[in-house]
Design a protein that fits this description.
- This protein is an alpha+beta fold.
- 24% of the residues lie in helices and 34% in strands.
- The protein has 2 domains: 247 residues, Rossmann fold (3-Layer(aba) Sandwich); 122 residues, OB fold (Dihydrolipoamide Acetyltransferase, E2P) (Beta Barrel).
- The protein has 9 helices and 20 strands.
- A 6-stranded mixed β-sheet has the order 6-7-8-3-9-10, with helices on both faces. Strands 13-12-11-14-20 form a 5-stranded antiparallel β-sheet.
- Bound molecules: adenosine-5'-diphosphate and magnesium ion.
């Protein structure tokens, strides 16, 4: 089949989408299961060549969104485009998508090579081309020499690499990965993440990656979409999601955060002045719309943005050391404090010095070390 010639080589072969829109585009896509709204009017552009991560708690709608892009589910409303083409009515096998799902098992009785060749055989590529693509893809995922083994003769990490190779062998337009590393232990997960990123960069394949693990999302992604209860809460770079969450949910779901009682002093354009104890902090005003000066607010501030108040510092609040938690490279210091909505403050110290320096029971004054925080109207209690 001559018209398959352009599929040779592992690269993205599609024309850029028209109009500068996303390479994968969802417009008002909704999906219900009975009474459950699994996805509510999702509008999203996935840029060509990026790794976009869907991050959110279990049941948030991540797998549903992925299945809609893959074509395993049909939306109740809305439209999906891939590479500028409407695909809402296109069946999965014609969408040219590579999938690596949590439960997408390898064929146990087939060799590694046969597993990787599977999609190519389905597409009826000529044998020599199949052999060449299998060899190329196995080299890419560093499985050369294991071609004739069966999945059972491989470690968990190697099996995932075979599954990744199988997804990539067809030179997909889009790669979809649903919690692919969640069954692996922590070290292996970390090295697979790095490897995936390297491979993805090499190929430039547009990738949607699903995880409920915020540190995986922060380290792997070009951009993150936070999803909960079927709704897109925020889309941004890992830095934007971590440093400038626009919703209370995002601020609490991604990373450790302290929630401290504070007061809005004034709003000046895009910035709001917040008073916490004797300290003042400028935060983005966008999350405080409708709050009047003097109103109680809740300041979301990361552990690394707090430090011990020294002479001359303005004390934000006080707390009493209740526990230390040794983390290897740093110590987490837990304080009991009335200033915190949960009654607890988390601070972070490099090294181990904090354990001896501030034993349990020590009262310490806390200052804001950085200017990165966000505030939300105080929740009614
Ligand atoms: N096939 C299905 N039938 C009924 N409900 C489903 C089905 N698939 C998903 N759901 C529901 O839709 C919601 C979103 O699920 P899902 O997309 O799997 O979330 P996530 O992948 O973020 O954990 C959940 O409430 C889930 O129970
Ligand atoms: Mg899921």
């Amino acid at each position: 089949m001559k018209n398959r010639a352009e599929t040779s080589g592992i690269e993205q072969k599609s024309a850029p989408p028209a109009g500068g829109q996303g390479f994968v585009r969802l417009e008002g896509v909704s999906k219900r299961f009975g009474d459950v709204v699994a996805l509510h009017e999702a509008t999203l552009d996935v840029r060509r060549g990026e790794i976009l991560t869907l991050l959110g708690p279990s049941g948030g709608g991540k797998t549903t969104l992925l299945n809609l892009v893959a074509g395993f589910l049909l939306p109740d409303s809305g439209a999906i485009h891939i590479a500028g083409q409407p695909v809402t009515e296109v069946p999965p096998y014609r969408r040219e998508i590579g999938v690596l799902f949590q439960n997408y098992a390898l064929f146990p009785h087939m060799s590694v090579a046969a597993n990787v060749a599977y999609g190519l055989r389905m597409r009826r590529l000529p044998r020599p081309e199949i052999a060449r693509k299998v060899a190329e893809t196995l080299a890419l995922v560093r499985l050369v020499g294991l071609e004739n083994r069966t999945p059972r003769q491989l470690s968990g990490g190697q099996q995932q690499r075979v599954a990744l190779a199988r997804a990539l062998a067809i030179s997909p337009k889009v790669l979809l990965l649903d919690e692919p590393f969640s069954a692996l232990d922590k070290n292996l997960r970390g090295s697979m993440q790095l490897e995936l990123k390297e491979i993805q960069r090499k190929l430039g394949v547009t990738t949607i990656f699903v995880t409920h693990d915020q540190s995986e999302a922060l380290s792997l992604s070009d951009r993150i979409v936070v999803l909960s209860e079927g709704r897109i809460r925020q889309v941004g770079t890992p830095g934007e999601i971590y440093r400038r969450p626009t919703e209370r949910f995002v601020a609490s779901f991604v990373g450790d955060v302290n929630v401290l009682r504070a007061r809005l002093e004034e709003v000046d354009g895009e910035a709001a002045q917040i008073a916490i104890g004797a300290a003042k902090l400028a935060v983005p005003a966008g999350t405080l719309r409708g709050c009047a000066p003097g109103a109680p607010v809740e300041l979301f501030i990361r552990p690394e943005q707090l430090r011990l108040a020294e002479t001359g510092d303005e004390t934000a609040c006080e707390g009493v050391v209740s526990a230390h938690s040794y983390q290897g490279g740093h110590v987490d210091l837990h304080l009991a404090s009335e200033a915190a909505v949960s009654g607890r403050i988390l601070m972070r110290w490099p090294g181990t010095e904090a354990i001896a320096r501030w034993p349990v029971g020590t009262r310490i004054a806390v200052a804001c070390a950085g200017t990165e925080a966000v505030a939300f109207p105080a929740s009614p209690s």
